[in-house]
Amino acid sequence: MFKPNEMFEEFQKNVQELIAKSPAADIEKNVKAFMAQGFAKMDLVTREEFDIQRALVDSLRNRVEQLEAAVAVLEEKDKA
Q1: Are residues 34 and 52 in the same domain?
Q2: Which residues form a coiled coil (predicted)?
Q3: Do 8 and 38 share a domain, yes or no?
Q4: How many CA atoms are closer than 13 Å to the CA of 47, on its beta-carbon side?
Q5: Is the dihedral of CA 59, 64, 70, 72 positive or negative?
Q6: Could you tell me the sign of the dihedral formed by the alpha carbons of 52, 54, 59, 60, in that order?
Q7: Where are the alpha helices (DSSP H) in 1-80?
Q8: Residue 26 has pLDDT above 80, yes or no
Q9: Residue numbers of the domain that contains 12
Q10: Does 1 lie in the same domain as 22?
């Protein structure tokens, strides 16, 4: 007689084999290929790439604010 874990593992193995031999496996492969092709056309970026660009933009924004403040000080000196 099977132990509960062995019975579950055997059932899972049988289901995986059944799915692998069924048209569902082909459908899954086709859907994955279709989605990959669609995503490739979208020019998507990874989260890591997005975070790097966001950090760069934040850094540039801070630098622009500093330069604007420096320009404002120089303009005030020029008026005086």
Answers
A1: no
A2: 50-77
A3: yes
A4: 0
A5: negative
A6: positive
A7: 4-21, 23-41, 47-79
A8: no
A9: 1-42
A10: yes
